[in-house]
Amino acid sequence: MNLILLALHDIPARQVEHLAKLSGAARIEQIDAQTYRLCEACPELVEAGKPHADINAYCFEQQIDYGFVPAGRHLSDFGLVVMDMDSTLISIECIDEIADMQGLKPEVAAITEEAMRGEIDFAESLRRRVALLKGLDEGALQRVYDERLQLNPGAELMLTELKKHGIKTLLVSGGFLFFTERLKPRLGLDHTHANTLEIVDGKLTGRVLGKILDAEGKAQWLVKMRDELGLKPEQVIAMGDGANDLKMMAQAGISIAYHAKPVVREQASYALNFVGLDGLIKLLN
Q1: Catalytic residue chosen out of the listed positions 84, 96, 214, 245
Q2: CA 244, CA 214: separation in Å to the nearest integer?
Q3: Most exposed of 11, 57, 81, 225 (fewest Cβ within 10 Å)?
Q4: pLDDT tier, 117 (very low <50, low <70, confident <90, very high otherwise)
Q5: Is 201 among the catalytic positions?
Q6: What domains are defined for the chain?
Q7: Is 84 part of the annotated catalytic residue set?
C-alpha cells in the first residue's frame, strides 16, 4: 500500500514525516508541495476498509486528505465514473436555490439536510420540497442555472483527465433533468439521468413526473451502465456526498465521499474533505 496525502496548502515536512511514522512507510516521495506518496505503508493499518484512527484524526486536524492506495493502481484500471450532481459535481443544491426564488429556501433547505443525513426517505423529502414550489414560473430554473450554478473546484480538470483515459462518465441525480441536460453538453458527460419537474402553462405544478430517481434508482443506473460497458465492479468509481448516494456507492469498486456528510464519509473507500474533485486524479494517478 501507498499512503497518498493531498491538501490545498503546502504540507509541512514535519507533518509528512509524522504520517510516515504512523503508517510505517518505507520512504517518502514528494509529487508537489501539496501532494505526497508514502510508499510501502503497512496494509494491516487498513482493516475491513476502515482507516487507521490515528492517521484519520491527525489528517482531519491538519486539513489533509489521504488514502491507502494499492501500489500500481492507476486511472487506466477504471472504465466508468458515476457522479452525484448537487453538492458533488456542482456547489449548490439546485432545489434550495429554486426555492429561494419563492422566499422558501430555509424551509426547503431544512428538508434537504434531513434527507442528506439519511433521517427521512429521499422520495418523501423530494415530494415535500417540490410541493412548496407550486406556482413558480419556469424561468426561475434558468435563472438558477445562469446565476447560481457553479462547478465544484477541480471538476473540469477531473473530467479532462477521465476523458484522456477513455473513462466514461455518468451523472445520476436526485435533482432535476433541467440542470443535468444542460451540464451534459457543457462538460462532455457521456450519460445523465435525473428527475423531471412537471410544468404546465409555464408554471411548476409542485409535482415530479414519473418514478422518482432515488437511492435505489441511482444504484440501478450504475449497474445498468456498468453491465452495458462490460465492466467489473472494481472498474467503477462512484462519487457522492449524501445518504441518497450510499446504495450507488456500494455498487462501485471505489467510492469517494466528496465534502460529504459523516454517514457517507464513514462508508466510503476514500473521503475528500478539503481538496477539490481533481483530488480523485491525484489519488489514483
Answers
A1: 84
A2: 7
A3: 57
A4: confident
A5: no
A6: 1-72 (3.30.70), 75-285 (3.40.50.1000)
A7: yes
